[in-house]
Amino acid sequence: MATFKHEVQKQRKDGTFNVKILVTHNRQLKRLPTGIYITKDDMTRSGKIKNQKVLDQIDDLIRLYRKKANELSIAINTMTIDKLADYLCEPEIASIDFIEVFRDYIDENADKKGLKNYRSALNSLIKFIGRDRLDVSEITVAFLEKYETYLGKGRAVSLYLGSMRHVYFYAKQKYNDEDAKRILIPYSPFSRYKVPRQNIAEKRAISADLVREIIKLPYDTTSRGNNKENRYNLAKDCFILSFCLIGMNSVDLYNAEICENSEIVYCRTKTKDRRSDNAKIRIKIHPLILPIIKKYMDKTGKRVFRFYQMYADQSTFNAALNKGLKAVGKKIGIPDLEFYAARHSWATIARNDLNTDKSTIDEALNHVDKNLSVTDLYIKKDFSIINKVNKSVLDYIFNFTYPAGDITGGTSKRDTLGTKPQHADLSCFM
To answer: Which of 148, 125, 141, 147 lies closest to 190 in space, CA to CA?
Structure first.
């Protein structure tokens, strides 16, 4: 005979607690999902549920499970705990709550990159429908089109609807079993509705004149106390760093460990696991950014920059940059300025303003042409080509002259780097 009781799970990131039903069968235990979420106000100090309404919901659910288990009669004795759980949780088509499935997906993929976007998408969807429940049967082409209109024309359209599509496919995998002829979600609205694709370059790239404006922006001299970093100043500096280093990502700025022969050497985090060369790139340091590099250099020699000492991880570092860029963007008339704009702007300027061929831009951005990947194994990488292009871009941006005074706010210096190889030894900047 199967037995049932409830269990309150660990607190979620949104502050709520999910309630699960524990079923014991043949000395095996399984936790069954519920759509019941409670807060601290619903519990005693010892962690027991005190909200009678919630307790009634739980009791109703347990009674339903007992009823279904009793209907199996002696057949239950030959069932595994997993088969029994599948039988008990098998819902009607219209009773599958997409919001609950969305939450389950987030919980099951806690370490997944970009999960923040899924949380934002879920919150947006709940706000759109005005309730905390959405049956899968309600998700139609017409529903998706209305949601698209609600989102407008921003980045959220492709981001949120793309996340929603991914979770919908996850739900179909979870609830449908074609071999067993068990199809609880027969609908396929995303086969007829196409998620709009955003022109990212058009959205994120800014003009050469706006890049110049960022360079010329004065620093905020307001004291923050306790050595707290000014996010505005940090964002301005790192945006310039990224642009002058061919769109170097924030995660790579954070983790960079090697500086040698006046070059920063790193393997691009985003693609290194998909490349035979680990997406390695060497970028010549332009004299323009030498003061900024000195400003943030890691004096311990562990890494090139001390950003890891300022922020606990690359995510908090990136968040600080994007918050600071909001203030930077307001000053140049781009209130939604993002860090990735430095990379897109470099590529756009190289192509449209300097007529650089696309293959060279691809190489500079550390992309890879799959059609040439075999040939590339036989060709030694010549980084001088991309560094020549980068110098052309920077000379164009700064009109062959440097701003008056040190761009970090100090006195003007024309420093050059030494040629002795350095591995996270920033003495080459001294």
So the answer is: 141
Does the global pTM surpass 0.85? no
18, containing H or E segment: strand 17-25
Domain count, the chain: 3
Confirm if 368 and 271 have CB atoms less than 8 A apart.
Answer: yes
Tokens at 331, concatenated: 């000053």
Closest-CA residue to 193 (of 147, 145, 124): 145
Give the domain-ending residue among 40, 57, 90: 90
CA angle 217, 223, 224 (to 5 degrees): 105
| Residue 230 vs residues 77, 216, 221, 245, 334: alpha-carbon distances, Å | 66, 17, 9, 22, 20
One domain for residues 20 and 160: no
Instruction: Give SS3 for 282.
Output: strand
Give me the residues paired with residue 258 across strands: 265
Q: What is the domain extent for residue 55?
A: 3-90
* pLDDT tens-digit readout, 380-423: 577 888 889 999 999 999 874 444 444 444 433 333 333 333 34
CA distance 49 to 5: 13
